[in-house]
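Q: Got a minute? One more chain.
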Amino acid sequence: MNYFDDTIAAISTPVGQGGIGIVRISGAKSIEIADNIFKSKKQSKLSNAKQYSILYGHIIDPGNDNVIDEVLVSVMHSPNSYTKEDVVEINCHGGMIPVKRILEIILGQGARLAEPGEFTKRAFLNGRITLAQAEAVLDLINAKTDESLRVALEQLKGGLSERLSEIKNDLIGVCAFAEAYIDFPEDEIETKTNDQMIKQLTDIRQEIEHLSRTFQEARFFREGLSVAIVGRPNVGKSSLLNAMLKKDKAIVTEIPGTTRDMIEDYLNIKGLPIRIMDTAGIRNSHETVEKEGIRRSLDAIENADFIIAMFDGSEDMTEDDIELLEKIRDKNTVIAVNKSDLPQGIPVDIIQISGKQYLYISAKTGNGLEDLKSFIFNSNLRNWKEEREGIVVTNLRHKQALDRASSSLERAVGLLSDNQPLEIFSIELRDALDSIGGIIGTVTTEDILDKIFSDFCIGK
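A: Always. Here it is, folded:
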C-alpha cells in the first residue's frame, strides 16, 4: 500500500531554457490527470498504455482546448516505478513557459505541487529504497567528479544498506537469545554461550568501527576537500588560485590587500573534488574592511581540511610570515614557497624548523604545481586505495549513528563480561539496533526525514 493518497507533480528539469523540459506526476490519479490533458495522434489513452510506453501527442488546455505544446509522454505503472506509484513524465520543449503552463494545468486537475525531495521520499516510504540509498540520490546529483559519482553510485546500489541489514539481523539474533533467558530466568547462560556472544558482539563492533573510520577520507568525495591558500599580502595567493583553476578567478595586482574576501571554486585532483579558497592577506591592519577579510582568513585556517601556507621565496621572512608559521603549527599544512623562478632570499632553515613539508613553486610559470596537487591528494587520502575497493561511509549522520552503535556494543560486552543483569545488557543491544536502523530507515523520525529531504530540489 502506498504511503500517500494524494497525487503530486513538479518540474524535474532545471529552471531556464533547454532542449527539453520534464514535468513529473506521481500518485494514484497521475494517469487519469494526464489523460485529461493529453491528446495523441491515434487517440490512444494513457490508461491503456503498456508499462514503460512512450506516446506522442499534444498537451491541451481543457478550459479552452488550446494546444500548449507538442510532447512525448512516458507511463510507468505501480509498483514498477521510481516511487512504486503510477508515474507519468511529460517531455515537452524546454522553455520556461511550456513547462510552467503544463504544470499549472496538471495542478488545476487536482494534483498537488510536490515538496522538495518528495518523489524520493515516497520511494523510501513505499519501500523501494532504504534511507541511506535515498541520501545517495542527492549525492549523485551533487557529484562533482567521476570518483564522487562512483562513490554515490555504490551507495545507491545499496552496498552499505545491505551490509548494515546483515549486521542488524545478527544483533537481532543475539538480542532474541538474551531476551529468551530473561523470560526464563531459571535457565542460566552457559559459560561457552556467554563467550560466544561476547566474541560475536566484539566482531560486529570491529566491523562497525571499520566502517566509521572510512568516513574521514570518503566524506571528501561527498563534501569536497576544503583547501585554504593563506599568507601575507602579495605572496601570490590569487595567482596560485588562478593557475590551479586555469582561469582568471581572482583579481591579481601588485597592490597589497587586493583580495578582501574569500574567493572559492572547485578543482578536480585525480577524482577528488577540491573546494579551494583564496583568502585575504594576513597582516596587521587597521583598515575596517581589510580587518574583516583577515578575520575570515584566520577562520579559514581553523576550519579548512587542508592549508596551503604561501611564502614569497624571493624575499626575506617578515614578522607576518613568522606569525603565520605559528598559526599553522597544528594544522594539516603544506608550505608553498612561491616565485621559484626568481633568485631565492627566504631562509630555508626557518621553514625546516616548522616541521612542515615544503615545496618550491612558481604560480607564474606553473613550476611545481603538479607536485603540489599530488601532495594535496596523497596527504589527505593515505588509505583511499584500499578503502575504495569496499563499502565506505560518506555521510556524517551515518558515521555518528555507527559511533553510537559501537559505544552501545562496547557497554553491552562489558556488562556481559561482568555478569551484569541481562535486562541492562538487552537495553544496550536495542540502542545499537536503533542506531543502525536510523541509517537504513527501519527506525526513524519525521524530524530526520524532514531534514534529509529538505536538501533535495523540487521535482526529485
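A: The first helix runs from residue 30 to 37.
Q: Perfect, thanks.
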